[in-house]
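Could you join me in thinking about how sequence relates to backbone shape in a protein? We need material for that, and I hope you will provide a protein of your own picking. Label the sequence line and the structure token line clearly, so we can match residues to local backbone shapes. Would you write everything just below, so we can both look at the same thing?
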Amino acid sequence: MLLGKCSVPQARLLVLTIACATLPVALSAASCKTQSQMTGVEREALSSAARSMVGDVQRGDVQTLQAKTIPAVAADFGGIADSVKSLKPLVQDATITVESLYALDASTEPPGATRTDFYCGTPVVVLNFNGLPQGSYALAILHATGVAQPQQVALILSETASHQWLLAGFFSKPMTVAGHDGLWYWVSARKFAKNGMTWNAWFYYRTAAYSLNPVEFMSSPNLDKLHHEEDEVHPETLPGVKPLMLDAHGTAFQVTAIDTTTALGGFDLEVHYIPDATEAAQLHDPPSARKQVTEVMAALLTLRPELHDAFHGIWVFADEGSASLFSLELPMDQIMPVTEPRPAGLSANQ
């Protein structure tokens, strides 16, 4: 059986290999029950087990949570332990609610099935797993609210022969990004797209998709619609396979990546560029370095003035290999005035 995890912050799934995909081709279908289809006894058993585990997270009780974990995961518990330590201060005073429950029956699946798909409820929610052993499982999604940084926690549970639910996988991510939930980013992305502000729209769609999907192995009609809208506005000029060349008063800067970050609290753009030999030499002098990275910021806003209205600021990193020679974050109003009129859009402070 393969071991793996999806690229989700704070994600820990050490027994089940998940297919990180959108709506799948049906290779193998097992049965699924949503919480509305469960009996009261089934619902209470799952809810109680999930609440108990998140309660251990709130207390930072790694040892007790490990004792409630299937042996294969408990034997290599370091990843989950790290997640618990990170989450405890964020959720220790939170109100915990069970948002969704899915009972997943794979007890009759062929041994060694490469992929198991669960189709749950109406409209259908699809859960995709690779290398899933025969057995009964559940997905519990819980919200920790009433705190400064609300969190969503997803637990994969495995049922023992004695009908006890044990932890088999652990995921967590924030419910909000820079103070706004996923729906706000989706609505905002649509407004940006309507105004032709495709860079803003794409970054906001990506943020909405991150916030609204608690686990990467889940898909639904709404999530597929969101991803379709995201794909429709994807800017071809963003750096990726090829760098983006920015011109600043005759100086060329090779931008290798642009993403979003909330490392300083606000919703910022994170820009990485590779300086040439002359530019790298200037970075050893702090005033020259500040001038250079500010020119990168200004050149980006000259190229895409719309960014001024969608982000708190820009954080620029001058990279050399895996190291950063210099980095600087500035709010938009300290970078440069945007002299060209901008289409009506959204303020990053809305």
Notes: Confidence is low (pLDDT under 50) at residues 1-15, 17-28, 337-344.
